[in-house]
């Protein structure tokens, strides 16, 4: 069902219709507009996406009977922060789609849009708000149109996320003004990829921008976290291998890292291993015998024997 409204938000519409598990509402407008909604007082069990001139809302009531849907809107350039009540529906639900459920961490609207472009996220590799992955791996790229710093978090389906799941199953890779978010899911299910941003020069907190829904049905998926980063890990650095933060015991492990502006790279295991430069990359091997942790350290100045930790890997127990 579609409704078109003009510049006035004073009029509400009361409509009744039958839902067979799902109902869709599409609203068209003439200018860039932000929307909110409430289904029985919350934004759960629903999926809203912004369009260039409006929005689309899919709702999945989890109980039969009557449901109240309210839609609110405001012009993007409005100086007031108040959303105006523009539409109201009473929905009579005869059947429930139990198969479609969304993580509690999902925020509305979902996916990239004209709004996220205005925040500096240009040319997204995934324009659809839902990312499907069969093997538990996926990546999202953007061209950053502003001088911004990015924070990304992964939230699992209907459960509290540990810090390891939230942040260490996502790797940021920068190539100039392009950023790639490489994701390895810890298990099957639905996940929310939340993206925050702030100006690099701003010492303040990150501001939430938008999120994706990531789905994986393959129950055999179980990717370990990426290695732990320390504060000296800089934009432009990149890990080609090993990507897993959990290394096998008693093995020779190949390292290939892109780290610029430093004099020397050491890998510390039970012994110390020096990586060598080869066509812009630092490469070499280390053996994981006799150790529980592996560290990557760098010497920034050849005239000063001071080493800084960049990465930490864990080693599987035997």
Verbal overview:
This protein is mainly β. It has 3 domains: 2-96, Immunoglobulin-like (Sandwich), CATH 2.60.40.10; 114-216, Immunoglobulins (Immunoglobulin-like); 228-315, Immunoglobulin-like (Sandwich). The protein is 3% helix and 52% strand. The chain has helices at 114-118, 163-168, and strands at residues 2-4, 14-21, 23-28, 33-39, 46-51, 54-59, 65-75, 84-96, 121-122, 130-132, 137-144, 148-156, 170-175, 178-184, 189-199, 207-216, 228-229, 238-241, 246-247, 252-258, 264-268, 272-278, 281-287, 293-299, 307-315. The strands form 5 sheets. Strands 17, 18, 19, 20, 21, 22, 23, 24 and 25 form a 9-stranded mixed sheet that branches. Strand 22 (272-278) and strand 23 (281-287) form a beta hairpin. The chain is elongated. The N and C termini lie far apart (60 Å). Mean pLDDT is 89; it is low at 1-14.
